[in-house]
Amino acid sequence: MMEKDISYFTIEAPTPREALERMRRQYGAEAKILTHKTVRRGGLLGLFTREAVEVTGYVPRVQAGGRKREDVEEAKKKILADARREQALQLILKEIQTLKENMGRPVPLAYARPQAPAGLTRIEDLLRLNEFAPAFIEETVDRIRREFSLEDLDNFPLLQSTVLEWIGARIRIHAPLEAARKGAKVFILVGPTGVGKTTTIAKLAAIYSVGARGAQGAQGAQGAQGAQGPPPHVKIVTIDNYRIGALKQIETYAEIMRVPVACVETAGEFKKYLALAQETDFILVDTIGRSPRDLTKLGEMKGVLDAAGTLAEIQLAVSATTKASDVAEILKTFEPFKYQAVILTKLDETLRIGNLISVLAGLGKPVSFIADGQSVPQDIERASVLRLLMNLEGFQCPRERLEKLFGKREKIADALWS
After folding, report:
1. Per-residue pLDDT, 223
2. Contacting residues for 311 by C-beta, under 8 A, at least 6 apart
3. Range of lowest pLDDT (2-6, 162-166, 299-303, 412-416)
4. How are beta strands 341-345 and 367-371 bridged, if at all?
5. Does residue 213 sit in the same domain as residue 309?
6. Is residue 12 part of a domain?
C-alpha cells in the first residue's frame, strides 16, 4: 500500500512573485512554502551585488514504505531551525562589519571620560543656572581639572570660592569719571533703544552736580573732584529730538536738579555748543536709541558725536536682561564709537547675569556703573566686582574673603583717579 511522503525544494527568483509562479509551475498547486528570505547574489568582492528571493518549501509525493507524519513534522522543524540559525549568523556578521568600520574613529566624549566628580557637576550646574556662556563654562571646568586634585574636588566650599575668585578676576572695572584738566569733560552715552540711557544720564547728572541736591551727589563726585573743593558744574545735552517725549523727559529731570539742558541736531550745532561751554566741568550727552541693525542711522549719529573730538569719553549702556548672543552683537556693532566702558542697566529686572559677565570678559570690556531701578539718583552705583559676584544665584559667596581680594584692588584704582 502506498503512503503520502514529502519532497523538499528551494527556489530562487528576482522577486517574490516570480518565485511563487516558478514554484507553481514546477511543483503544482500542492506545493507549500516553509520559509522565504532576501539574499544577495553575484558581484565582485562584495560590490555590485543584486537582491534575490529564496523560497524553501515542500510538496507531497507517494512512495512505497514511506515515512510517518511524525517524520514530516520533524523535518519541517529542522528546516525552520536552520533558517533561524542562518538569520542569527547574518546579524552577527553585520555587527562584526560595523565594528570593523568604526575601528580608528574617535571615541565619543561620553565614553572617553569617566563620570565627573560630584563637586565638579555642582559647579557646572551653578554656572548654567546663572546662564554663563558654554565657552566660559568649558574654560572654567578645564581649569578646575588642571588645578584641583581629586581630594580637593570633594571640598565644595573651597571649590566654589575659588571659582568665584576666577570669575571676579575676569571682571574689569572702569575708573571713575574724571574732570578734564582743561575745558569741559564730555561724557557720551550710546546704546540701543530701550536700555534706559536718558534715565542713566539723569542719574549721573544728579551724582556729579552741585551740592544742595544731597550728600550723595557730593560723595559720588569725589572720584572726579576729590573730597575738597567746589562741586562740579554739570550740563546736559541731548541729540534725541526724534523720540516722542524724549526731550521733555530729560528737561523734567534737569529742572528738578537745576541742571541746564540743551538739544542739538547736527555736528555743527554740537561743536558750537561745546565751544561755548568751556567753563563747564562735565557735559553729559544723551543720544538717540538705535537698533544695532540700523547701521545707517548709527553712522549718522556717530557723525554728530565726532564733533566732540577725541577727548570725549564714550560709554555703552546695555540692559542686563539682554541674552548673551545679542549682548555680543551690540558690543561689536557699537565698536566704531570707540566706547571705553559699559554701563549695565535694569539689573533689577533679572536674576542671572552670567551671560553679561561671559561676553564682557571674552571681549575684555570693563564696567563703569550699575543701574538697578528708575529712581534718580538712588538706583545707580559704581560698578564693583563684589557687587556683580553677590548678584550670582546659588553661590554661597564668602563675602569677607572676596572683599579683601577685590575691594582693595578697587580702592587702589579709585585713589589713582581721585
Report:
1. 43
2. 180, 183, 185, 186
3. 412-416
4. parallel
5. yes
6. yes
Euclidean distance between CA atoms 186 and 363, whole angstroms: 25
Question: Quick one: 208 and 317 in the same domain?
Answer: yes
In a domain, 175, yes or no: no
Residues with Cβ < 8 Å from 359, sequence gap 6 or more? 133, 324, 327, 328, 331
State the pLDDT at residue 106: 61
Q: What grid cell was written down for 35?
A: 520559509
Q: Which three cell numbers stand for residue 373?
A: 531701578
| Each residue's pLDDT tens digit, 377-401 | 778 888 888 888 888 888 887 777 7
- Total domains, the chain: 2
**Pure H helices in 308-352:** 324-333
Residue 120 counted as domain residue: no
Domain of 263: which CATH number?
3.40.50.300
Instruction: Give domain status of residue 158, yes or no.
Output: no
The pLDDT tens digits for 103-158 are 666 655 444 455 678 888 999 999 999 999 999 999 999 999 999 888 888 889 88
By three-state DSSP, how is residue 112 classified? Answer: helix
Looking at the fold, whether 89 and 189 belong to one and the same domain comes out as: no
Cell numbers 585713589: residue: 415
pLDDT of residue 400: 78
Cell of 417: 583717579
- From 102, 135, 151, give the residue that closes a domain: 102
Cα–Cα distance measured from residue 374 to residue 253, given in angstroms and rounded to the nearest whole number: 12
Instruction: Please give the residue range of the domain that contains residue 58.
Output: 2-102
Which of 1, 49, 7 has the alpha carbon at shortest distance from 27?
7
Cα separation, 97 vs 409, whole angstroms: 63
Q: Which CA distances in Å does 54 have to 33, 34, 84, 312?
A: 11, 11, 14, 87
pLDDT in tens, 168-202: 999 999 887 776 666 678 899 998 888 888 888 88
Write down the pLDDT at residue 56. 87
**Which of 366, 364, 239, 236 lies closest to 290, judged by CA?**
239
Q: pTM surpassing 0.70?
A: no
Q: Last residue of a domain, which of 75, 102, 129? A: 102
Distance set, CA 104 to CA 99, 100, 107 (Å): 10, 9, 9
Nearest alpha carbon to residue 372 among 352, 391, 348: 348
